[in-house]
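Problem: given the chain below (600 residues), write out its structure.
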Amino acid sequence: MVRIALTTSLAALSLGIAAAPALADQPQSVVVIVDDDDDDGNFEPDLLQNKAIPPPDLVELPNLSAFSGKPIPSTDAVRFVHQGKPLAVGTPLPSRDVRLQALVPGQHVVTFASHPLHVRAIRIMALDGASKPVSFTSSHASFQRTPPDRIDDVTRPHGDPDALRFVLVGMKRDLPEHVRIDSRAQDGTLVDTLQRAKLVDVPCPPGTARELHCRSTWPVRVVSDPMDQSHPLVVDRSVRAVLGGGLVVRVGDLAQQIRVGGPRSTRYGPIQRLKGNLRITVPRTWPGGVPVLDSDSAAAMDMAREQFAGASAIWAQCGVTFGEPGPDTIRLLDPPPPFLLAIGCGLGLPASGGVVRFSIEDQSLQVPVPAGFSPEQAARRIAREIEAMGFRVTRSSNARIGPGALPEVDLMVFRQDGTPAHLASVQGEPLTTDPTLAVCVGRVDFAQGLRHFLDLDSMTGTVEERTLLKWFDDRDPRTLDAVFIPAFGRGGGRIGESFIGTDRSTLRNMVLVDRVGLSASNASHTLAHELGHVLLDVPGHPDDYGLDTPTLLMDSDAANASSFGPRRLRIEDCERMWQQSGPRAPVALLRPWPFQPLSK
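Solution.
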């Protein structure tokens, strides 16, 4: 390998081809990028592949006719690629379709007989907060999980667990003052651009050849929304991205790309990308009426889609996405009629002896219940009588509430065609004459505000909540169901609720968010917060039993529409999410979604 001095300008080099005349008797020069990334998504660096080498980072040889037919010399600096395969040493160079792939940075001369080819190669490296290399192939950039912070010295480890410095390695005169960083989605759509990421001189990483020089960006933060991007401390080094997309670092026409995923380091290894099945239901205020979110159906659905995307953006910090909102994931439906009969509602007391009386589609029914019957036994007897009338019944047992004697049992009554039946009391008479076995018909009345649970019945929810949620539930515990409502009743300032899938819970992996919760989303991220209770399998909040950290998503009372608001997820949150809801959990709410090949 021979080092030479070249006079080609950087402007010409940025185009990938030297400005020297393309004459056979004059030196030919070309600038290339060291091909460390993985354009075909097979988790092997492109420069190590021996077949189907991806073409994006290969450079055409200048004045190929001057070298064609000549045997390829031995070199460790570059490879010559023809039809996707590297050409062996000694092979005559073809007369067309030959491209150059750089293997190491620096200034090299490859001589074909008496014809020299001058190669100038630049390597782009990624370094983490501890100044350790991050592979463009086997690792990825991760979303920012810490608030904006000032960094005064780019040459020292900055400790940020997510931000990456991009370091250019090459001959000093080949390195520019700035690079451009494009953020692209998986399908190649441009998401954002950091137009002029400033480069500064830095010491080179250990093992770099002495004649090479290094320039580095400031630590680049990958964020999911404009709010986190625009803080004055970090606006010039923050770029928006989407999970599963990539960051393309460009030096003129040369580029390298690193994928964007979840945390790079957890107790369970790196988290690349996980997908959850989130389904949002927007009920109408009454059957056939206007949506609970807005009098305009299109506007209401837009609001729901915005909430869906916002939840994905927040949970990208842990490598989680809910995909793209579509007709199967955003639904506008009528509220349920009074089709649910709750046996033992309240304290779940056993029967003292009496008669349960109610009507189904204006057909009256009386069922004697002997003394000593539990709510479960009474429900079975009542269900048989309902089925004898030609209706279908789905029996749904609930958990025992804190002060309850026995669990309540819900009977959901349907016509034979599967549509819900209408239940009511008979001529205003009580539903039961039994003094201890309570019976209730579940009715959803949005005008009064949805009656919400208290601590003592949080494991079951109220009869009204169960009527609403069991109507919309798909019975698949792997689905995350979110239902929007106008408001909660009882006062107290509640804007969201979650029902966690545990052995004692009745409603599993479901959340409720009201209009106030939606309007406060920029400050409280209500839907993402309530989903957090489900994904983490934690009913409480960090500040209930520890330090109050208002920047955390799971904080109980923080409301701040800035970069310092409740939007952050810690590594320990991501680890618990993996343990409780990840692919190996008993009920896997999240499944792996492998990275796909990306275009530049």
